[in-house]
Design a protein that fits this description.
Fructose-1,6-Bisphosphatase, Chain A, domain 1, D-Maltodextrin-Binding Protein, domain 2, 2 domains, 5-stranded mixed β-sheet, binds 2,5-anhydro-1,6-di-O-phosphono-D-mannitol, binds magnesium ion, FBPase_class-1, FBPase_C_dom, metal-binding
Length: 339
């Protein structure tokens, strides 16, 4: 076995060589995302040291308090990407409206949706956070991008990925030919291939959810969790609960170890939220794309996440993602409850 040191740029170029029609635009776009990720990493890794720690007084479009680093990460993503000539429009969790490409810059054929810093309430306690991105092709007519370019179903993504700022910083992405992970070597400033062709196990004993919401879930979801505790896998391996409250970290572990990540709708209780919390376009769809590319399954309990045609930018959706057998089982119980 030979070990090669392969940078993310080199890996993208090698992949593109298989597609003679590729003009390098996509790899250029990924390079700009990577640059933004390195700048965000630099700030996140210093969070405990400076006054960036703590909340601002701003409330974002979802009525949540925005941490200073969220704003910073959002600004970095926009500034790194708005002038490159590859994008025609962007959307971010932090911006209520689509983000146009300024008139002075050329417009390109790709569309970018992102969550600049997911799980940011975890920054104060030094738990991993992450950035998530989803790339589509422009479908509208005219030079500049439009809302319809942003509202495309997930199966049409040209690529998707996340950066996890954890005990090490990793980029995990797919352009439709497998899922590959790259770990940042901070001393040289490069993401190096460390996890080639990631494959999620077919089933797993780890479940990842905010079990504090148990009483608000539907009977099928409750039944699934009770089943997990009783008989986690066919091999009778006992279950483990792992939940950080940072989806990027929880999905990353699920990709590597298998099992299921779930954020169901809350249907009972004083403040029901049947759509759950997570956003379809820049949280669930890119994660579903990666999970499927790694051989897993992702749904809202009834429908494949990647088939859902979005109707608004910040739409929320219940989310079940992970090992295919785990997700199939929770889907079966949800269908049963509805019968
Ligand atoms: P955010 O986009 O405001 O950071 O919220 C998304 C995060 C996810 O990373 C995580 O899975 C979830 O919120 C945790 O929510 P809860 O605290 O309700 O369990
Ligand atoms: Mg988020």
């Amino acid at each position: 076995m030979t070990y090669k040191i392969i940078t993310v740029q080199r890996h993208i170029m090698d992949t593109q060589r298989r597609y003679p029609q590729a003009r390098g635009e996509f790899s250029d776009l990924l390079s700009q995302i990577i640059l933004a990720a390195k700048v965000i990493y630099r700030e996140v890794s210093k969070a405990g040291l400076s006054d960036v720690l703590g909340a601002t007084d701003d409330i974002n479009v979802h009525g949540e308090r925005v941490m200073k680093l969220d704003k910073f990460a959002n600004t970095v993503m926009i500034r790194a990407l708005d002038h490159g000539g590859h994008l025609c429009i962007m959307a971010s969790e932090e911006n209520e409206d689509p983000i146009p490409i300024p008139e002075e810059y050329p417009s390109g054929k790709y569309v970018l949706l992102f969550d600049p810093l997911d799980g940011s309430s975890n920054i104060a306690v030094n738990v991993s956070v992450g950035s998530i991105f989803s790339i589509h092709r422009k479908i509208s007519s005219g030079k500049r991008g439009k809302l319809e370019d942003l509202l495309q179903p997930g199966y049409k993504q040209a690529g998707a990925g996340y950066i996890i700022y954890g005990s090490s910083t990793m980029l995990v992405f797919s352009t439709g030919v497998g899922v590959h992970g790259f770990t940042l070597d901070p001393s040289v400033g490069e993401f190096l291939l460390s996890h080639e062709n990631m494959q999620i196990p077919e089933s797993g004993a780890i479940y990842s959810c905010n079990e504090g919401y148990f009483n608000s879930w539907s009977p099928g979801v409750k039944e699934y969790i009770l089943q997990m505790k009783q008989n986690a896998t066919a091999e009778n391996k006992s279950a483990s609960l792992r939940y950080t409250g940072s989806m990027v970290a929880d999905i990353h572990r699920t990709l590597l170890y298998g099992g299921i990540f779930l954020y169901p709708g809350q249907v009972a209780g004083p403040a029901p939220k049947p759509e759950g919390k997570l956003r379809l376009l820049y949280e669930c769809a890119p994660m579903a794309y990666l999970i499927e590319q790694a051989g897993g399954r992702a749904s809202d309990g009834l429908r494949r996440i990647l088939d859902i045609a979005p109707d608004s930018l910040h739409q929320r959706v219940p989310f079940f993602a992970g090992s295919s057998l785990n997700v199939l089982e929770v889907e079966r119980l949800i269908r049963e409850e509805q019968a």
